[in-house]
Amino acid sequence: MRNGWLKFGCFLTGINYEILSTCSELSKKRLLKYTSALLIICLLWMVIGYAFTERYLKGTWYVCLVGAAAMIFLIIQIERQVILSSRDNRGLQVFRGVIAIAMALIGTVIIDQHLFKDDIDKRKLFSMDEEVKLILPGRAEELKRQLDEMDSIILSKEGERKYIADDVVKNAFVTIVEQDISYDSARKKVVTVSKRKVPNPKASLLEPMDKTIISLRKEKAKKDSLLLGLRPQIEADIKANVGFLDELEVMFDLLTESGVSACAWSIWFIFLLGLELFILVSKLYETETDYDRRMQQQMELHYRRIDLLKQQAE
């Protein structure tokens, strides 16, 4: 079990297991310390990555898992830069400190936006009215324009139908004149003219026109209902489209107006910053172990081999 844990720790940190397995208990304890700290940081950022992908990127559960895995991969690679570097690399340590502050800020913002979700939603209700006032007139004007056009079309169709219906009432039957041309025995053309009355063919136009008018009225009724429910629909759209920057502005207002909110935010920031700097601080104040000596010895041995090869080549 312990060897498996050591192998897992070496996999995370990039430390060579074959060399570590021959080292003292002190080197192994240091690896376990780094592994525990790295797992805590990875677990925290896995939750942050999942929450961010779900809330702001609108990802499905498997997309959220991909986002969480990406954050874990990123954290491991960043921490490896510190773990595998020497204690004398001050430039890297300063750079890691800057990254730690930035990541602590990002993590605190995302976590607090979930913790203060109800407070943010309450505060957004005040700003929602202003957004609705900006959006509502334009959409309402467009719907009214469409309704006016449909009213004109319906009136035109009804007028056309009335004209046809009046004509059918006045002239229920129309006279059709037919000519029959034939030839007698002397091959003279004989034209026979006959007249007969048939129902007015315009009557067949009434049913399709009625269906068209009914369809137009139904469509107009739908647009009327849309116009009546336009404000609730706009409010629902605003609530559905959660913006990261919008919530960030609301969060900033909460922090500047409420000392309790600012205190809670500061606690989370200090906590995350401490986690981010945990490995870095441990690296700064760690003592040299036999693993470090083995690595130094291995490097010196390779240098000697290179020098010998160079001498032989000369």
Automatic annotation (TrEMBL):
A Pfam cross-reference name: DUF4407
**Alphabetically ordered keywords of this record:** Membrane, Transmembrane, Transmembrane helix
Q: Does the keyword Membrane feature in the UniProt annotation?
A: yes
Specify whether Cell wall biogenesis/degradation is a keyword of the entry: no
Looking at the record's lineage, which domain of life comes first? Answer: Bacteria
List residues traversing the bilayer: 34-53, 59-76, 97-116, 265-285
Name-wise, this protein is: DUF4407 domain-containing protein
